[in-house]
Design goal:
By secondary structure, the chain is mainly beta. It has 2 helices and 11 strands. The protein has one domain.
Length: about 160
């Protein structure tokens, strides 16, 4: 049975989301940052996650985000200085209890939080850590890891 067939026949409870850095770092410290990760259920309602603040990581580092809800279906995340990542998920089949995981074969291009597309007009210093609704996000439907796209907060919450 293929992974796609397995995914369709199971009721997934996502237990981990991995974001592994592939390329792009800050010139002065050779690091990249994950600014924010927001998880959503199937209806588009925001679900809290274990990752809520800017953290700098070394090149090639893999970040594991653990959702606190069993209903996570999509994520949006903001990065700084990374250009591409490999996304992965681990999930439990609710009916059988079996554990599955998958990762992208090809990296996903990610958007810098202050790049276009973004909302709120020109970037302002006070938006650095305060107003995540003006940031750009990479949005991913976790049922199809290869569909990531750069978007704005308004479009993320409308999905």
């Amino acid at each position: 049975m293929s992974t796609k067939e397995t995914e369709k026949e199971t009721e997934k409870v996502i237990t981990e989301i991995s974001i592994k850095h592939v390329s792009g770092v800050r010139c002065d410290n050779h690091k990249w940052a994950l600014n924010n990760v927001v998880a959503f259920d199937a209806s588009g309602s925001v679900v809290d996650t274990s990752f809520k603040k800017l953290i700098w990581f070394p090149q090639g580092h893999e970040v594991i985000v653990k959702p606190v809800s069993t209903t996570v279906k999509k994520i949006a995340f903001a990065v700084q200085d990374a250009k591409s990542v490999i996304l992965g998920i681990t999930w439990v089949d609710r009916s059988s209890g079996n554990i599955f995981s998958c990762k992208q074969v090809q990296p996903t291009k990610v958007v810098h939080w202050s790049s276009q597309p973004r909302e709120g007009g020109p970037w302002k210093a006070e938006e650095d850590n305060d107003n995540h609704t003006h940031w750009s996000y990479t949005f991913v439907d976790l049922d199809n890891l290869d569909n990531a796209l750069a978007t704005t907060w308004t479009k993320v919450i409308a999905k």
